[in-house]
Amino acid sequence: MPSMFTNGIQTHYQIQGSGPALVFVSGLGGAGGYWAPQVELFAKHFTVVTYDQRGAGKSDHPDEPYSIKTLADDLQALIEGLELDRPALIGHSTGGAIGQLLAAREPQLLAGMVLYASWSKSDAHFNWCFRMRRTLLEGTSLEEYVHGSALFLYPPDHIRANAESLSPGLLASVANFPAREIVLRRIDAIMAHDASAQLSMIRIPTLVVCAQDDILTPPYQSRLLAEAISGAELRIVPKGGHSFSETETATFNHIAFDFLARIGFVQTDASVI
Questions:
Q1: 254 to each of 93, 218, 249, 267, how far by Cα in Å?
Q2: For 52, which DSSP code?
Q3: Does the N-terminal or the C-terminal CB of the chain have fewer CB atoms within 10 Å?
Q4: DSSP 114-182
Q5: Which residues is 49 bridged to in the sheet?
Q6: Sheet containing 3-6: order of strands
Q7: pLDDT at 183 > cutoff 90
Q8: How far apart are CA 30 and CA 51, in angstroms?
């Protein structure tokens, strides 16, 4: 996995495929590997860029305050360093928050954007969820933290049906887990996020998508985003939880690809997937 010095840190990234550039931006976990269910398919049509964010994966983990603005600065530096020509962005949760700031302040940087299971401003529900996750992280084992966090990511029926296959992966993630202090700093960053004043500045084609049973960023958060972004489309799918790109992969891939095709970012019909 190559790396590049961007905005004061070493950022690890991966590029696959060819065609228009498409950047996938992960959520709180911050690791590019989150997008494994998407990369192979989308790389048949796009130059797919995934990367590990500041404080995640193989990128640097500076022990300092974090903010969504800093994470957006990091991504802008990566896009410019790789000389990507107006890529599209697909951002999950925190990745969507990063996309909001980038699209608002740099109108020529991106060609289009998918905000998936994201939010524009923390509220009581959001803060209560992350207060619980902070408490788990500070007061129990990492094994219990990753299992507890999974309850926010996956719907109950998915956990019931896939617990035996999910649990080993969650336990394996502990081996490469960042220092607790770094994760807490990333949690602080998302709890402080407020892009409500910037959303009206977004002028690129935007799709806002969420699952009806997402308990971490419920559908009302996506509705608020779509209402505030001029011309934004809203799509609420029936099920899949906060990580429905993983739990309902075919549905997510089709929705995202169809949007990119409809805005003219790829000259291929979504039926190919």
A1: 19, 21, 9, 15
A2: P
A3: N
A4: EEES--SB--HHHHHHHHHHHHHHHHS-HHHHHHHHHHHHS-HHHHHHHHHHHHHHHHHHGGGPPPHHH
A5: 15, 23
A6: 3-6, 9-16, 47-51, 21-25, 88-92, 112-116, 206-211, 233-237
A7: yes
A8: 8
pLDDT in tens, 242-269: 999 999 999 999 999 999 999 999 877 6
What CA–CA distances, in Å, run from 40 to 46, 49, 134?
Answer: 10, 12, 34
Q: Locate 134 and state its tokens.
A: 């902070």
**CA gap 151, 159 in Å, rounded:** 8
**Is-contact 61 38, C-beta < 8 A?**
no
Q: Is there a contact between 73 and 54 (Cβ–Cβ < 8 Å)?
A: no
> What is the pLDDT averaged over residues 237-243?
98
Distance CA 204, CA 263 (A): 10
Neighbours of 2 (CB within 10 A): 10
CA angle 7, 63, 191 (to 5 degrees): 85
Per residue in 44-98, pLDDT (tens digit) is 999 999 999 999 999 999 999 999 999 999 999 999 999 999 999 999 999 999 9
User: Tokens in use for 101?
Assistant: 């700031």
Q: What's the confidence (pLDDT) of residue 271?
A: 64
CA 68 from chain centre, in angstroms, equals 12
